[in-house]
Give the backbone structure.
Amino acid sequence: MVARNLHFGRREPVRRKLNMNAIDLLEKQHKETLDLFEMLEKSKPGATRKQAFAKLKSSLLAHMVIEEEIFYPAVSAAQSAGESVAEGYEEHTGARGALERAGKALADEELFGVRIGVLAEMVKHHIKEERGEIFPRARKALGGELEELGDEMEARFEKAVKAASPAAKLNRMSTQRARAALENAGA
Ligand SMILES: [Fe+2]
Ligand SMILES: [Fe+2]
């Protein structure tokens, strides 16, 4: 009897250790992204820049994957958030292009500064929109479901970071989903 209780006592905390609601998870990733931008904007061509940029690229792409595959559709389905979500997809497409261009200028002192600056501005604007438009709707519409979504998104994020899905395919997905979000809004 004693041994059984000990067994059950150990199991629960291990299973729930990743519990973070969907919005807290996205905000944590936003902060990490902004920190990486700050570092990259001050960086010089070389190994440290290359490493920091690779981290930015994989985590930003994976962040957009979990928003496009899980978070945005959940917000759209729960409430008519069509226009702000459709704008979100479009801004992701823009960010993917700017990310790609910055990656091609890693060795160029001046051009990289310009391109990473443009990307940082786009992402900062986008984060502001998510915070001001999408997150309040999500909180209102999804409430307690945000916990479960957070777990699902965290697991998907880990996979997407490893897979680093091809940007071209994701761009096509963005366009289709933006269209679907607008159709939902009009329905
Ligand atoms: Fe985001
Ligand atoms: Fe986003």
Q: What stands out?
A: The chain has one domain: 19-186. The chain is about 85% helix and 0% strand. The domain at 19-186 is CATH 1.20.120.520 (Four Helix Bundle (Hemerythrin (Met), subunit A)).
